[in-house]
Amino acid sequence: MSENISLIALTVQQQMQADTTGHNFDHIQRVVKNAELILRDLPQANRAIVLAAAYMHDLADDKLVTDLAAKQNEMEKLLATAEFESDQASAVMDIISNMSFSANLVERQTLSLEGQIVQDADRLDAIGAIGITRAIYYSGHFGETVYDPLIAPREKMTKEEYRQPGTTINHFYEKLLKLADQLNTAPAKKIGQHRNQVMLDYLAEFKAEWNGER
Ligand code: ADP
Ligand code: NI
């Protein structure tokens, strides 16, 4: 392929290295790895679009970016410099705006096959042992309470409500345990099932220890 994925990888690495909210470049590298794994089973997907979106998907996160329009502009420039045709660049930008959990809270967005792959790759990194670690890390960063049996998990949430602090343990019920069922592609579903069980086992153990049962 003629698109310059290495340039995108390097630029994203420079921009994300300092993040301490669980969105750092380690996360990006795992998402790219997950995406490559899923691509093996779906060779009809456009590899350059998948990889560019995987690398760039957290650059315009509204938690981390104040001037969204300026950031999007910068991202479009990066894609042009990396020799993406304009329709391919739009496909990448479209995936990035529509794939996040928060963009899908109220109504589910339609995603291209490439978008479905990147969304799955990102969601796999939010569940399982890595997902548990990221949730605790994120909670600590934002000063969330770990657990309070008197605070019930929130049911249907708007994007604004989702951004309000809850508890680490409730985050599993509010988001993480829902992700495995929402995966799009067959290879991701298989991995997701295992990772979901890892979280269920962890929660059962956590509560038993909390209650002094073992
Ligand atoms: P998205 O970008 O898909 O909207 P987020 O940015 O909300 O997803 O989540 C990024 C990471 O931070 C995930 O691993 C997620 O589990 C974690 N996270 C987000 N919100 C919370 C929260 N309130 N408590 C604990 N972890 C959280
Ligand atoms: Ni991500």
TrEMBL record:
Gene3D superfamilies: 1.20.58.1910, HD-domain/PDEase-like. It holds the Pfam family HD. Residues 20-136 form the HD/PDEase domain. This is HD domain protein.
